[in-house]
Amino acid sequence: MKKKNLITLTLLLIPATGFAGTVMGNGGSTFAEQLVQEGTSVEQYARQAQQLQQQIQMVEDQAENLETVPQSLWNTALQPIQNIANLEQQMQGYSYDLQNTISEFKNQYPGWNQSGYDYNGHLSNLDNSTLQSIQQALETAGLNPDGYATAQDAITSAEETGETSTGRMAELQAANAIAGTEASQANQLLATQQQYDASAEKYRATQMQTTINAQQATEKFMTPPQGGFVAGGSHGPIEVP
């Protein structure tokens, strides 16, 4: 069997469904609270991607002038590389949940999104372009992403077999590039999330105000005037208590 590499796991991620605490799992929060929680989650993804890129860059810088990448130095890079794969999976799941949320909101409020902006199409394109960028980073580093059925298989194989110094450096370079891609992905996810949040919240507020106005009009119509109704007749006005 051909020897594989740790970074291949980033291409072996499948969309997750129903991440508790993200878009779909709001834990009973109000709509406004949910919007804040969602935006905070995506901001955390962006910060985490930047931090992982910095960690890998530090290892890459230390290894740059070495003839070989020692095992001790390589060990410091393993966890950040695995975290990159985990982060990509989380963002894929978040994008999936967000698309479901937008679809449900559209079904609940058919009059929403009169501009016709294709939120889900944009998110799907973002997922695809991110995957292409990851694949390009692997190909540029000369790494082969094929051969394993699950991400865990790739991790286990990499940990058991190890890599040559050249292979390790290639993985560091690819991981660095992928972390940058993930930071960009998270920022674009956040922008789309914020655009949807603002639009949905504005529409809900408008609908709520319309409902309140209708209720007030109904109450005003049904409430008799002070002093009761007055009926006219041949003998003059008669007060109806």
Key features?
241 residues; mainly alpha; two-stranded antiparallel sheet
Q: Using only CA atoms, what is the Rg?
A: 28 Å
Total helical elements: 5
Distance between the termini: 96 Å
Q: What is the strand tally?
A: 2
What fraction strand?
under 5%
Major β-sheet annotation:
2 strands, antiparallel
SSE order in H/E notation? Answer: HHHHHEE
Q: Would you tell me the overall average pLDDT?
A: 75
Helix content range of the residues, please? Answer: 55-70%
Structural class: mainly alpha
Give the overall form: elongated
Strand line-up of the largest beta sheet: 1-2
- Uncertain runs are 9-28, 147-161
Write the layout of secondary structure elements.
Elements: H1 31-64, H2 71-108, H3 119-140, H4 151-161, H5 165-222, E1 229-231, E2 238-240
Antiparallel strand pairs: 1-2
Helix pairs in contact: 1-2, 1-5, 2-3, 2-5, 3-5
Describe it.
- The chain has helices spanning 31-64, 71-108, 119-140, 151-161, 165-222, and strands at residues 229-231, 238-240.
- A two-stranded antiparallel sheet has the order 1-2.
- With 241 residues, the protein is an all-alpha fold.
- It contains five helices and two strands, in the order αααααββ.
- The longest helix is centred in the C-terminal third of the chain and has 58 residues, at 165-222.
- Helices cover 68% and strands 2% of the residues.
Describe what is shown at a glance.
This protein has 241 residues and is mainly α.
